[in-house]
Amino acid sequence: MKTYKIAVIKGDGIGPEIVDEAIKVLDAVSTNAGFNLVYEEVLMGGCAYDVYGEPLPKETIEVCMHCDAILFGAIGGEKWDNLPRDKRPESGLLKLRSTLELFANFRPVKVYDELVDASSLKPAIVEGVDLLVVRELTGGIYFGEPREKEEKKAYNTMVYTKSEIVRIAKMAFEAAMVRGKKVCSIDKANVLEVSQLWREVVEEVAKDYPEVSLSHMYVDNAAMQLVRDPKQFDVILTGNIFGDILSDEASQISGSIGLLPSSSVGGKVGLYEPIHGSAPDIAGQGIANPIATISSASMMLRFAFGEIDAADKIDNAVSLFLKEGYRTKDLSSFGAKEICSTQEAGSIIADKVSKL
Ligand code: IPM
Ligand code: MN
Fold first, then answer.
1. Ligand 1 in reach of 136 Cβ (< 6 A)
2. Domain CATH number, residue 318
3. Where a domain ends, among 223, 254, 285?
């Protein structure tokens, strides 16, 4: 029987709670599915700093490199906010992304029919939204040199090389080919040289995809268009920092940031994680929404292992769960028939998966 090895990074805050539920669902879907899942838990983030004095210990990188995929919860919290930048939990995640060359981050935004009222936008605007943010993840201003914080001056550098733009643009066009065949590339080419190059290179890559229609948008306009008419978008292609900001904005279209999964790929091993953070304010209370992590586990089955049936089962179980009126606290005001805890939500979804 096929066996897939999964590195599990629970992280900080609500991370452990939501990852435990995703594992519950993975175990349910792998029973009698013709494959085995084995897990190896490793530390990253604040919890790793507390044990090793480093947010990303060598052991963690090694285990991740020898696994078939990585399932990750969330990191960070006030406790570690005043550490020097390279010791902060976030630095662990950034270093993991760059060490594993996970340059392509996919953040799909879908609106569940049952939750059209949960969005802060009008139902008619959000109903049927189905877009994909393709965010460049290992370059741009997050990693550019020089960077420095001095007493009276601080700076960062936004830099992209042509080859970095080519490879992320290809990812976006490939994704568009199996979706709505539209790419909107988002930049700030009216002000930034780095965006001018971005635009030129994206135009060049587009020539290899004549079936895909390409448009460009300035990031300020895109932020507005996303809430004015999100249905105009199919694939959004953008750089690291714009993608960070726009994907949080896009998540609210779906009603809760607790719903959206992501995958980060490009190197040998992919990383699957919810797009939300560690929410320390609600950690340990059993009220976090595990759906984003459960859906990230489904993306892992689909894209890392090619286990399409199993992934479909998880997605269908999540839809059923919502359809039947189960809600975690974040969505309790929207069509709730029964409010459930993080753990109950995981068990109900796992149970549905077993019966599908
Ligand atoms: C994300 C997060 C990270 C980012 C942080 C935690 C470093 O906000 O995955 O979107 O900015 O990329
Ligand atoms: Mn973010």
1. no
2. 3.40.718.10
3. 254
